[in-house]
Amino acid sequence: MMVWYGGHMGWWGYAAMGIGMVVFWALIIGGIVVLVRLSTGGTTAPAQPPATAEQILAARFARGEIDEAEYRDRLAALRG
């Protein structure tokens, strides 16, 4: 009953409300994070290793950015 304090809360009441609000929102946000992780399987795709120079060169040749002669020259330079 607040009659004992003249109808006003003491400092402890405000502190308890502040802490309670932080705990409440932490539980809400934590629950959302857990639900999202459970709904997506909780796993991420494994990281792909970076492409090697030969793979990049082969991709450029496949896209038609370089011709066969240039591809062979650059491949020989990479391997040599």
Automatic annotation (TrEMBL):
What keywords sit in the KW lines?
A: Membrane, Transmembrane, Transmembrane helix
Which InterPro entries does the protein's record reference?
SHOCT
- Chain segments annotated as transmembrane: 12-36
User: What highest taxon heads this organism's lineage?
Assistant: Bacteria
UniProt domain SHOCT: residue ranges: 53-78
Q: Is Transmembrane among the key words of this record?
A: yes
Report the protein name in the record. Answer: SHOCT domain-containing protein
